[in-house]
Amino acid sequence: MPSRRTALRWFAASTGLAALSSPKPAAAETLVKNGKIKQSIVHWCFARGAKWKIEDTIKAAKELGCVSVEGVAPQEWDKLKAADLKCAYVGAHGFIKGMNNPIFWDANFKAIQERIDKCAEYGNPNVLSFTGFADTTNEGGSAISREQGKKNCIEAYKKIIGEAEKKNVVLLLEHLNTRDSAEMKGHPGYQGDDVDYCAEIIREVGSPNMKLLFDIYHVQIMHGDVTRRIEQCKDVIGHIHTAGNPGRCEIGKDQEINYPPLMKKLLEIGYTGYVGHEFIPTIDPMVGLREAVGLCDVG
Question: What is d(CA 267, CA 270) in angstroms, rounded to the nearest whole number?
Fold first, then answer.
């Protein structure tokens, strides 16, 4: 039998009580009150799962008390600025043709530099990068061993990190899971699927402007023991993503990750960055987002 919370969430979704344009008498219970965790919405999930336009995500962020809409291309940043929102991270190159293969360096350096410059112009904090896939033979690349991939990433990031330092922008490296083969729920073939591997690359680069995008969903799938992982990576964590597991769904209490203790752990280690909600909605998106914001708004 479904829990009362589950029944209420599905009832709200099916009756449309949580639509952006309709009254929300219960919203005050989950709006940001403490604000110690800077919450953000990752736009692509809601563009994909709910067909939201950027204006919809901006409206939701303002309504919920989030301070950022992230993963948004610079051509949309004037809209964010008008709404007094940051773009907590912006992508540069893709996750297949990454920094582990010198064949892709020139294109990636160019993309990263462009994003660094735009972030500096708008006051946005982070540019996202990836190790890349281990074998990109079918993408015009080649197969790279794990150890060589690490060496290549360190060399590549050392070449570009000075540009981030000059502009006071942080370059993020994201850890991704390789166990889930569903589209955008996992990335089989990605070389940086071990959070310690990614952390080692970042530590070897040795710059305060090179950090880890610690995605709780991906870490749970690949490692589990998330609280301990946060502690182990506290020196390199620069950004956080959320999603429920299994399925990259909402982060409510009907999935296996318990988010409030993880948010408290972030406060304990002195984390001051953003927490971006990156789940693909399976119910009314505002129902899921309200619950997520409430769960992460710890005191």
Answer: 5
